Recover the amino acids of this structure.
């Protein structure tokens, strides 16, 4: 064990220590930051210091309580900076940049990327080398700014509802908070253990060769599409194999169709209604072909690179075995609206309690658990929330799609860009940040946006945006929509023109009419 409580390590020093441990050298043992001069009992032990555990502990500490975080990794922040949000944003940035370069290959200052395959290995290595920076910041912020106590680099073993064993020491607390996250689901088909079969975690941890010209992605949800678009943008043939229609979460038909068309134009291939049957390996033990069962029969695709994105399995085994916490049919831990499990004094937060797998839910869940532990009666009710994903674009959505809105309201008005143009000519709108070159030189790729309005009440009920730069806006738009935002109120806002989402000016152009009309 190494006691860091008296040390005031800089971000750089944390980074060095984390890198040593991630490289497999844990000779000095866990990193322990526990205040020797504090004799108070811990209010809660947070098992897991990811988004849910770290935010829960920080909130509890801010309220005057005493939390202890234990994480098996030598850093706080969990899977977000290590395997999930951060690498996926790196890859999605790369995909957007490559799509720009491929679209304008040989024009202006753009190099000619036609027919060129870009290294995935180099990009993964670039991420792997840079990722300890955010890790180090998490440790620095948690210790020096948030005053959190923690033990890092070792697993916690649950003993009972009030104690856990950590590196041979028993820690007691008034409560336990299970924040152990989730892991990728595995496949049970022949060939699953071949080299060359990755998920989002093993890709960034273990890729050590340059994948060949074909990538096969299993799954049709956000992770499948986001990584698929990245592989495709590197110049590889990319097949998306999914049992269901891809992109089920984008709940507006026109927006989904725009996305699928643009992805297909970039060369992506979709096999909906299909499933992986078996994987064939070569003499080195690496995958060399995938046999896929499609609606028309089996096909064999030669590939040395397979990416599995079929959802997550909760890390709930130990809590079930030692505490007997109740779980649902997928093994996610059941909680009530106060984040309490079936066992008194045991709370659960984040991915381990099931969908939606979103950072805000993990962090807010931690916060609500902390409030309850500290004596408040605080209910976390997950309402409608905004969401986003990356294709080669940034895609945001909230509320009802046009189809659902028409079922619910008799007078649905849609304000959208680009307009439907009778001669089919594509207008260079919505033009905004990061989309201006497309607007000038390839207008059909500029983007798409749509505001869905109940024409009778004049209230916004849904919003969709494909392009760049709208994500921040959607965070603030969502609560306003929940509170009954009208087109008249939107038309009163001050746009920072050219604003990526044109909702404010579209509303202002129409708000003068007593009977609202679409456009
Ligand atoms: P985790 O962050 O996984 O934390 C669990 C922690 O528990 C880990 O640090 C682990 O080491 C520790 N642990 C487990 N068992 C033990 C034990 N016995 N002892 C000690 N420690 C233990 N969400 C977004 O909002 N935006 C995004 O852009 C986004 N991108 C994503 C991309 C991908 C590819 C994936 C898979 C997910 C993405 N998510 C995104 C979802 C988001 O990453 C998760 O919802 C979030 O990280 C969950 O936080 P958590 O604290 O519940 O779990
Ligand atoms: C963000 C990790 S990458 S955390 O939510 O700030 O802990």
């Amino acid at each position: 064990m190494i006691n860091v409580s008296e040390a005031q390590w800089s971000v750089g020093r944390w980074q060095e220590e984390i890198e040593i441990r991630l490289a497999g050298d844990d000779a000095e043992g866990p990193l322990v930051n526990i205040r020797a001069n504090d004799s108070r009992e811990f209010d809660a032990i947070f098992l897991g210091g990811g988004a849910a555990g770290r935010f829960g502990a920080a909130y509890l500490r801010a309220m005057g309580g005493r939390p202890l975080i234990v994480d098996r990794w030598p850093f706080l922040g969990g899977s977000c900076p290590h395997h999930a949000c951060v690498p996926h944003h790196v890859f999605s940035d790369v995909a957007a940049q490559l799509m720009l370069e491929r679209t304008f290959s040989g024009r202006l200052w753009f190099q000619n990327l036609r027919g060129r395959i870009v290294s995935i290995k180099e990009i993964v290595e670039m991420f792997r080398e840079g990722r300890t920076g955010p890790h180090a910041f998490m440790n620095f912020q948690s210790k020096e700014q948030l005053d959190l106590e923690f033990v890092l680099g070792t697993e916690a073993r649950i003993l009972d509802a009030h104690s856990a064993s950590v590196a041979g020491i028993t820690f007691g607390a008034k409560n336990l908070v299970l924040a152990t996250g989730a892991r990728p689901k595995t496949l049970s088909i022949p060939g699953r253990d071949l080299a060359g079969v990755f998920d989002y975690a093993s890709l960034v941890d273990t890729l050590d060769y340059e994948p060949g010209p074909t990538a096969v992605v299993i799954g049709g949800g956000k992770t499948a599409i986001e990584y698929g678009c990245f592989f495709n943008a590197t110049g590889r043939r990319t097949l998306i194999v999914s049992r269901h229609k891809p992109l089920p979460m984008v709940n507006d038909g026109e927006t989904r169709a725009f996305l699928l068309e643009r992805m297909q134009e970039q060369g992506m291939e979709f096999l909906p209604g299909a499933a992986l049957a078996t994987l064939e390996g070569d003499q080195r033990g690496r995958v060399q072909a995938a046999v896929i069962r499609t609606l028309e029969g089996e096909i064999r695709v030669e590939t040395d690179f397979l990416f599995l994105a079929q959802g997550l399995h909760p890390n709930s085994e130990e809590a079930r075995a030692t505490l007997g916490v109740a779980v649902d049919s997928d093994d996610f831990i059941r909680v009530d609206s106060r984040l309490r499990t079936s066992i008194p004094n045991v709370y659960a937060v984040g991915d381990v309690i099931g969908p939606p797998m979103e950072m805000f839910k993990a962090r807010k869940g931690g916060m609500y658990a902390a409030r309850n532990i500290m004596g408040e009666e605080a209910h976390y009710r997950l309402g409608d929330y905004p969401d986003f994903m990356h294709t080669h674009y940034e895609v945001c959505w909230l509320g009802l799609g046009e189809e659902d809105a028409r079922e619910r309201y008799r007078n649905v008005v849609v304000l959208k860009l680009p307009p439907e143009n009778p001669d089919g000519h594509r207008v260079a709108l919505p033009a905004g940040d990061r989309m201006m070159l497309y607007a000038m030189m390839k207008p059909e790729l500029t983007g798409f946006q749509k505001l869905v309005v109940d024409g009778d009440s004049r209230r916004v009920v849904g919003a969709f945006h494909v392009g760049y730069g709208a994500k921040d806006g959607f965070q603030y738009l969502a609560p306003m929509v929940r509170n009954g935002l009208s087109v008249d109120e939107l038309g009163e806002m001050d746009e920072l023109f050219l604003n990526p989402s044109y909702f404010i000016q579209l509303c202002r152009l129409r708000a003068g009419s007593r009977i609202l009309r679409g456009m």
